[in-house]
Design a protein that fits this description.
The chain is α+β, with helices and mostly antiparallel strands. It is 50% helix and 15% strand. The chain has six helices and six strands. Helix 2 runs antiparallel to helix 3. The protein is elongated and about 65 Å long.
Length: 195
């Protein structure tokens, strides 16, 4: 009598069902990622550093989850043998990059709470936008005197920048480790207010 082939849970011929420990680990990573995303948008909403750190932690864990899921792919065809390792390596690189930003933000927690910011003043030498094809285009970073400062979380639109800030001297207060901006103001406005 021939043995019956064990049925796959997934029903897909391109995926190995993970063993119990890796499966529980993957579920745990997904749970912590979802919890971090929830904390970022609700509990830590008013605290810039904790909110952004939770968001970047969620993205890091989600990238790690994608890498772990992809590890269980079967590589029967030539295209799969090429694409699967690229997805795994890309996901691990993204996860590491996001984790580094998370650690930098946690390092800035004390600076943020004590209002110890670095300041950069001048006309921006470079502005980068998020390149959104749908909806409003937002500024992702501003470079002044060779220092690139992240401003995506401040939601400055391209339209606002062109109308109010373009070619004008700016003062950026930012966190020292992560280089996340806390405030962007016009230098001229501050001088008028002092007088």
């Amino acid at each position: 009598m021939a043995k019956r082939k064990k049925q796959r849970i997934t029903g897909s011929r391109n995926f190995h069902t993970p063993k119990l420990i890796p499966l529980l680990f993957m579920i745990f990573i997904l749970f912590v990622s979802a919890l971090s995303l929830f904390l970022s948008s609700t509990i830590f909403k008013e605290h810039l550093v904790l909110s952004e750190a939770s968001l970047w932690l969620a993205m890091s864990l989600l990238s790690l989850f994608i890498a772990l899921v992809t590890l269980h792919s079967r590589m029967d065809h030539v295209m799969e043998k090429v694409l699967v390792p690229i997805v795994i390596i890309g996901s691990l690189v993204c996860s590491g990059t996001f984790a580094l930003t998370t650690f930098q933000l946690f390092s800035d927690k004390r600076n943020y709470e004590d209002h110890e910011f670095k300041i950069s003043e001048g006309v921006p030498s470079e502005i980068s936008f998020d390149g959104s094809k749908y909806g409003e285009d937002y500024i992702s970073s501003i470079t002044i005197h060779g220092v690139e400062i992240k401003v995506a979380h401040l939601n400055i639109t391209r339209t606002d920048y062109l109308q109010e800030l373009k070619n004008k001297p700016l003062k950026l207060q930012y966190l020292p480790h992560s280089r996340f901006a806390v405030a962007v103001t016009l230098v001229i406005e501050e001088e008028v207010q002092k007088q």
